[in-house]
Design a protein that fits this description.
Distance between the termini: 143 Å
Helix content: under 10%
Strand content: over 45%
Strand order of the largest sheet: 1-5-8-7
Largest sheet: 4 strands, mixed
Number of strands: 27
Shape: rod-shaped
Number of helices: 0
Structural class: mainly beta
Amino acid sequence: MNIRFVSILMTMLAILAWVDVSAQTDIVCGSDPVGTYYVEGWEGSTFTWDAGADGIITGQGNDTVVVEWLNGIGTYTLTVFETSAAGCDGPLQTLTIEVVEFASTTDITICENQLPFSWNSLEIGAAGTYDVTLTSVAGCDSIATLNLTINDVLTSSEDITICSNQLPYNWNGVDYSTSGSYDITLTSVAGCDSIATLNLTINDVLTSTEDITLCNNQLPYTWNGVDYTAAGTYDVTLSSVAGCDSIATLNLTINDVLTSSEDVTLCSNQLAYTWNGVDYTAAGFI
């Protein structure tokens, strides 16, 4: 950067007067900390420059100097004074040098379904740290850094088995009445989508029927721990191996004991009398 010192040599009552420009400040980029400086003086004047320990003079004419600033970011001083052709010294004049570097860091957290992420004309598809070199208003490089964090879309799966008499099944505020897989999009604590899946299995209520016929002299009839003494249809609710209700039905038929009577008269010399395979030798009722 070119900076001009202006010195005016005036003769007034044989006294030299000098104009001080020490209020001037120069900005130098930290990426290229080299500045060119010059003064305008009277013809025949010579100039003495001093960058101190912070800079090295890499090129110099009588009224021009090139300085490389050695110590990085900071504030430094360049001095010059003019000696006229008549051998008179002017006052020490000072220029403040600011060696600067522009940098910024941005931390961004987004969700996976927001990719790609656009930043300074870059399309970014993965988490990480990214740098881009821009130009500041001062004309210096500006290093912008992005720290990008990507939160995954969360997924969860829930397997539910219920009985048909428990329908409808409510899950995340929605009623379901048939078996199947169902998805719903929620929002995680990180603000990202969370995909929840329900795998719903519905077991039917089982039914069974048993037909039993017996004689009344076989009563009571015990079925599933209950004694029955009359014909009829009876239901009992059990639990299946799947944990659902199982409705068992008993159709019970009871046959009466049949009776018959036969009157037989015979002579004693006809004994023994055989009836239904049994010999009888005396009168009586069987």
